[in-house]
Write a structure and sequence with these properties.
The complex is a heterodimer of chains A (435) and B (505). Chain A has a domain of 245 residues: ABC transporter involved in vitamin B12 uptake, BtuC, CATH 1.10.3470. Helices cover 63% and strands 0% of the residues of chain A. Chain A has 17 helices and no strands. Chain B has two domains: 232 residues, 3-Layer(aba) Sandwich (Rossmann fold), CATH 3.40.50.300; 242 residues, P-loop containing nucleotide triphosphate hydrolases (Rossmann fold, 3-Layer(aba) Sandwich). In chain B, strand 21, helix 15 and strand 22 form a beta-alpha-beta unit. Chain B has 17 helices and 24 strands. With 505 residues, chain B is of the alpha/beta class. The chains are: A mainly alpha (435), B alpha/beta (505). At the A-B interface, helix 11 and helix 12 of A face helix 1, strand 4, helix 10, helix 11 and strand 20 of B.
Chain lengths: 435, 505
C-alpha cells in the first residue's frame, strides 16, 4: 500500500489556499450554527479588528469629545446667538475651547510645555504612568479572560477584595520593610484570585454564567467592604468616616524616580505582569489550552482539554491580575487609607482597556497608558479650562462604541470592507461586457 | 428556455476562477457540471444568478443577451437556484417562505391563501408531499429542499440550478431528488446540476461538462465510466477502489459489549450494541445518517455522557476515562464535523497539529511550548500529508475542506495509535482528497491498528471495509463481510436482515 501522492499533480483546490478565496468551498458542508453564544461571536469580531480601526475609533471619540467640549463652553454658547451675523466669533470660540481643552490634556498627560525644563515637563507623563498602572493590571486580567472566552465583568469586586486584603496587611501587620510590601502584595493577589475562583468554580461545577455571577459578586464585595469599613476590622478608630487607617511606610510601593515624580514600584510590577501575560498566552502550554477553549470550546474538548478546569484556571489568573489593580490602589495610589470608592471604577474601565488593546498583552499596555494620559490630562483640563472631567468617560465610551461597530467606523472613513469584492451584496454598475 | 454562457471569465486577484467558459443547456435537459472543490463551478453559477459579475463574456437566454445586476434580475428572467444551504426562514411556514420576496397583498393584508394554493398546485403537479402550513424547522432536510424547488418554480423558473443538492441528503432523499429532477426535465425545464459525486451524475445527466482549475476540460456522455470522469476531474487517473491486501486477522483489540447511549433528553440513541474489531482490520459502520453512528463514535472517545456497557481496548476499559486519558491510551479520532470538533479555525496549521498534545513532551517542556520543535514537526507533516497551504502559519480556517481534513489526519496519525476512529472522514471532500484519505486509513490498518470507520456513503463503506456493521435506529442490524452485495446492505440500512445473509460477527 503506497501512500505517496505525487506532489507535482495540480490538484484543483490549491486556489482556495490563497487568501481563502470563496470560490467553490460551498462544496464542503458548513457546520450548523455554532453553539457559542452571540456574546462570544461579537467579542471575537471586536478582537479581530485591526490597528487602523482602533486608531480611527480613538479619532472619532476625540471628535465627539470636541463637540461636547465646544457645545458646553460658555463663550461658544454666547457667540452662537449671533452666529449668522458674525460666524467668525463662534468659530473662534469653538476653536479656543477645543484646542484649549486638548492642549490642557496634553499638558497634564504627556508633556507640560509651559514648564521651564524637561524634568518638570515630563512629570506629566510620568504621572500618567501612575494612573495607567492599575488600568493595565486590571485590563490584562480582563483580556486573559476574553482570550479564553470568559467575560469577567467582576473587576470591581476583585479590586475591592484585593485592595482590602493588601490594605489590611499594610496597616495592621508590623513587618520589616520590603517583606511587609511583599506580604501585602501577595495578600491582595490572593484576595482577588479567591474572589474570581468563586466564579470559575461555579461556572465549572454548575454551568452558571460568569457574567451574572461576576456582576452579583461585585455587589457582594462592595457591601462586604462597606461592612468591614464600619467594623473594627478595617475602620480607622481615629476617624469619623468609614475609612481605613493609613498604610504603614514599610508596605507602600517605593518611588522609582525620587520623590519629585509620583511613579512607584507598582509600575515595574505591572510591566512584569504584561511580560507574564505575553508569555502565558503565546508561549505556554496553559495559555495554548486557554486560547483553544476561547476560540472553539467544542474542538478543545474533543482534543482532550478539560474545559471546566480551564475556566477555573483562567478566572483565578484573571482575578490575580485584577486584584493587583486593587493592591496598587492602596499601596501606590492612595496610601493614606481607603474607603468604599477605592476601586475608582477601574473594574469597568479595564474592560474598555482590554477591548481597545484587542486583548493582546502589549496592546492592553498601550491602551492603559493612553487612558492614563487622558485621565491625568482631564484633571488639568478641568483646572485650566473649566471643562468638566466627565468628558473623559464620554470619550472612553465612544471608543468602545466604535470598537464594537467596525462597520460604522469603516463607513465614516470610507474604508473598504474586508473581502468586499467577494461579497455578492455589493453589485457594481458595470454590466456584463458583450463582445 | 435555452441557456447559453459564452466566454465567461472571472478573476479574483491573481486567481482565474473562470477562464472563458462556454456552456449550453437546452430545455428539457439535465446538464451536469462536474468538478472538484475549487474548480470554479459555483463561481460560474453565481455569475449566472447575478451574484457575481463576469469580467467578460455573456449570458444568453433563448439567444437574448442578458444583463443581470443582481439575483432579482436573474429570477425575473426565469433562472431559479436551489442552494446547497437552504435560504429558508425556519420559523416561517412553507407558504410564507415561498411568497417571501414577492409577497402579494390584498387590501394591505398578505395574500397567504394565494401562496398556499400555489404551493398546493406545484406540489400536486410534481407529486411533492408538502404541507403549505408546516413550519420549515419541523421538516426533514429533503422536504426543505423541495420547498426551495417550489420557491423557484413559483417564480416561473425555466432554468433551474442545483448547487450540490445531494450533499445534505440521505441516500433515499437523493433518489427522490433524482426522480424530481427527471420530472422537471419532462416538463421542459433546463437543469444545471452541480456535483462532484460521480454516481449521481451518471444516473441523471443528459450531458456532462467537466471543469478543472477554472476551465472546461472536457465533456462526456453519461455512459462514461467513473474512472473516465474522475480522471477528467483530477487530471490524472484516480483509483476509485482502494487497493488493499487481505487483512491479517489477529486478536480482538477493541471489544464493545452491550453499549447503550441516551441523549440529553433521555432518548435511547444507541441500543445494546456489541462488536469487536481486530488489530489490522477496518470495521465500517454503515447506515443512514442519524441512526446512532455519531453517538457511537463519540462514546468510544468518552464524549458521551449517558452511556452503559463496556468498551475495552487491548483488555483495558476505556469507560469512565476523561477524554485526554482516552487519547493518551492511543485512540486517534476524526470527528464528523471537522470545523466544529476537530479544528480551531483561527489557529494556525502548526497550532492545530498540536491541539491534542498540549500536555507534555515533545511539544511542551516545563509548561512552555517548544516552538522550534513544533515548526519542524508542522513543516514535515504538511509535506508528508500534502497539505496545500502557504505555510505552517496559515490559519486552518482559510484552507479548503480537503486540506483541513489532511491537517486532522496528520495530527491524529502522527501519534502512536492503538485504535483509529474516523467518522465521515471524506464528507464534502473532492475526489483527490478522498483518495488520499482512503489510502491513509488503509495504511493505518496495514500498520496493525484496529480501525472503525463510520460512513453514510455506501461506496466508501464498500471500498474500505473488511467487515461492515449496519446500524438502524440505534441497533446493530448485523455485521457482514466486506464483500456483501449492495442490495443486501441497502435492505439492512432500512432495518431488515434478509434471510440467508451470512453474518461475520
Amino acid at each position: 500500500m503506497s501512500a505517496e501522492l505525487p506532489s507535482s499533480v495540480p490538484v484543483a483546490d490549491t486556489g482556495l489556499d490563497r487568501g481563502g478565496l470563496a470560490l467553490d468551498q460551498h462544496g464542503n458542508e458548513l457546520p450548523p450554527e455554532a453553539p457559542t453564544s452571540r456574546l462570544n461571536a461579537a467579542l471575537r469580531d471586536v478582537l479581530s479588528g485591526n490597528i487602523v480601526l482602533t486608531i480611527l475609533a480613538i479619532v472619532v471619540a476625540l471628535v465627539v469629545g470636541a463637540i461636547l467640549i465646544a457645545s458646553t463652553n460658555a463663550d461658544v454658547q454666547a457667540t452662537s446667538g449671533y452666529f449668522l451675523a458674525r460666524p467668525g466669533d463662534m468659530l473662534a470660540a469653538i476653536w479656543q475651547s477645543v484646542a484649549g481643552a486638548y492642549a490642557a490634556i496634553f499638558r497634564g498627560g504627556v508633556y507640560d510645555f509651559t514648564s521651564d525644563n524637561f524634568g518638570d515637563g515630563i512629570a506629566s507623563f510620568v504621572g500618567s504612568l501612575g494612573f495607567a498602572t492599575p488600568l493595565i493590571a486590571a485590563g490584562l486580567g480582563i483580556a486573559v479572560g476574553f482570550r479564553s472566552g470568559v467575560f469577567n465583568i467582576g473587576g470591581t469586586g476583585m479590586i475591592l477584595v484585593g485592595a482590602a486584603c493588601a490594605g489590611w496587611v499594610g496597616f495592621a501587620l508590623t513587618l520589616p520593610p520590603g517583606i511587609h510590601m511583599i506580604v501585602a502584595v501577595l495578600a491582595g493577589l490572593l484576595g482577588g484570585g479567591f474572589w474570581a475562583f468563586i466564579v470559575g468554580f461555579l461556572k465549572a461545577r454548575t454551568g452558571a454564567h460568569e457574567v451574572i455571577v461576576t456582576i452579583m459578586l461585585n455587589y457582594i464585595a462592595l457591601y462586604l467592604i462597606d461592612y468591614l469599613l464600619n467594623s473594627p476590622v478595617l475602620r480607622d478608630p481615629s476617624s469619623n468616616a468609614p475609612v481605613s487607617p493609613p498604610e504603614k511606610a514599610t508596605a507602600v510601593f517605593f518611588p522609582l524616580l525620587g520623590s519629585k515624580y509620583s511613579l512607584n514600584f507598582g509600575f515595574v510590577l505591572v510591566i512584569a505582569a504584561t511580560i507574564f501575560c505575553w508569555w502565558l498566552l503565546s508561549r505556554s502550554s496553559l495559555g495554548f489550552k486557554l486560547r483553544a477553549v476561547g476560540e472553539n470550546p467544542r474542538a478543545a474538548r474533543v482534543a482532550g482539554i478539560r474545559i471546566n478546569r480551564m475556566y477555573v484556571y483562567v478566572m483565578v489568573i484573571s482575578g490575580i491580575l485584577v486584584g493587583f489593580a486593587g493592591v496598587y490602589q492602596v499601596l501606590g495610589a492612595q496610601t493614606t487609607g481607603f474607603d468604599r470608592g477605592i476601586d475608582a471604577n477601574i473594574g469597568f474601565t479595564a474592560i474598555t482597556v482590554a477591548l481597545l488593546g484587542r486583548s493582546r498583552p502589549w496592546g492592553v499596555f498601550a491602551a492603559g497608558i493612553l487612558f492614563g494620559v487622558l485621565q491625568a490630562g482631564s484633571y488639568t483640563m478641568q483646572a485650566a479650562e473649566g471643562v468638566n472631567v466627565n468628558v473623559l468617560p464620554v470619550i472612553q465610551s465612544v471608543i468602545v462604541l466604535f470598537l464594537a461597530a467596525p462597520p460604522l467606523v469603516r463607513a465614516i472613513f470610507r474604508l473598504p470592507t474586508p473581502g468586499a469584492r467577494l461579497k455578492p451584496s455589493t453589485p457594481t454598475k458595470s454590466p456584463v461586457v458583450a463582445k | 428556455m435555452k441557456l447559453e454562457l459564452r466566454g465567461i471569465t472571472k478573476t479574483f486577484g491573481a486567481l482565474v476562477a473562470n477562464d472563458h467558459i462556454d456552456l449550453t443547456v437546452e430545455p428539457g435537459e439535465i446538464h451536469c457540471l462536474l468538478g472538484e472543490n475549487g474548480a470554479g463551478k459555483s463561481t460560474l453559477m453565481n455569475i449566472l444568478y447575478g451574484l457575481y459579475h463576469a469580467d467578460s463574456g455573456e449570458i444568453l437566454l433563448d439567444d437574448v443577451v442578458q444583463h443581470f445586476a443582481g439575483p432579482g434580475d436573474a429570477a425575473r428572467a426565469g433562472i431559479g437556484m436551489v442552494h446547497q444551504h437552504f435560504m429558508l426562514i425556519p420559523v416561517f411556514t412553507v407558504a410564507e417562505n415561498v411568497m417571501l420576496g414577492h409577497e402579494e397583498s390584498k387590501l394591505g393584508f398578505l395574500d397567504l391563501p394565494a401562496a398556499r394554493a400555489k404551493v398546493r398546485e406545484i406540489s400536486a403537479r410534481f407529486g411533492f408531499d408538502v404541507n403549505p402550513d408546516a413550519l420549515i424547522e419541523d421538516l426533514p432536510v429533503g422536504v426543505q429542499q423541495r420547498v426551495e424547488i417550489i420557491k423557484a418554480l413559483s417564480r416561473e423558473a425555466k432554468v433551474l440550478v442545483f448547487d450540490e443538492p445531494t450533499a445534505v441528503l440521505t441516500p433515499q432523499e437523493t433518489d427522490e431528488l433524482m426522480s424530481i429532477m427527471r420530472q422537471l426535465k419532462e416538463a421542459g425545464t433546463a437543469i444545471v446540476f452541480i456535483t462532484h459525486k460521480l454516481r449521481e451524475v451518471r444516473e441523471v445527466a443528459d450531458k456532462i461538462t467537466v471543469m478543472r482549475l477554472g476551465k472546461v476540460v472536457g465533456t462526456a456522455a453519461p455512459t462514461a465510466t467513473n474512472a473516465e470522469l474522475a480522471s477528467l476531474m483530477v487530471g490524472r487517473s484516480v483509483e476509485l477502489t482502494v487497493a488493499k491486501s487481505k487483512s491479517t486477522t489477529k486478536n480482538h483489540a477493541l471489544v464493545v459489549e452491550g453499549l447503550s447511549i441516551r441523549d440529553a433528553v433521555g432518548n435511547l440513541v444507541v441500543n445494546d450494541v456489541s462488536f469487536q474489531v481486530r488489530a489490522g482490520e477496518i470495521l465500517a459502520v454503515a447506515g443512514v445518517q442519524g441512526n446512532g453512528q455519531t453517538e457511537l463514535t463519540e462514546a468510544l472517545l468518552g464524549l458521551q455522557d449517558h452511556v452503559v456497557g463496556t468498551i475495552e481496548l487491548d483488555g483495558k476499559s476505556l469507560r469512565h476515562l476523561p477524554i485526554d486519558r482516552v487519547l493518551a491510551a492511543g485512540v486517534g479520532f476524526i470527528p464528523e464535523d471537522r470545523q466544529e470538533d476537530a479544528l480551531i479555525g483561527e489557529f494556525t496549521i502548526a497550532e492545530n497539529l498540536m491541539l491534542d498534545r498540549a500536555d507534555g513532551q515533545p511539544f511542551v517542556r516545563r509548561g512552555a511550548l517548544q516552538l522550534g520543535f513544533r515548526s519542524n514537526f508542522a513543516t514535515e507533516k504538511i509535506a508528508e500529508f500534502d497539505v496545500r497551504a502557504q505555510g505552517i502559519d496559515t490559519p486552518v480556517g482559510r484552507l479548503s475542506g480537503g486540506n483541513q481534513q489532511k491537517v486532522v489526519l496528520a495530527r491524529e496519525l502522527s501519534r502512536d495509535l492503538r485504535l483509529f476512529v474516523a467518522a465521515q472522514p471524506t464528507r464534502g471532500l473532492d475526489v483527490g482528497s478522498i483518495e488520499f484519505v482512503h489510502e491513509r486509513i488503509v495504511a493505518t490498518r496495514d500498520a496493525g491498528v484496529p480501525v472503525v470507520v463510520v460512513s453514510t456513503e455506501l461506496d466508501e463503506v464498500i471500498a474500505l471495509a473488511d467487515r461492515i456493521a449496519v446500524m438502524y435506529e440505534g441497533r446493530l442490524v448485523g455485521i457482514v463481510s466486506g464483500d456483501t452485495p449492495r442490495d443486501v446492505l441497502g435492505l439492512m440500512m432500512a432495518g431488515e436482515l434478509p434471510a440467508g445473509t451470512k453474518l461475520a460477527a
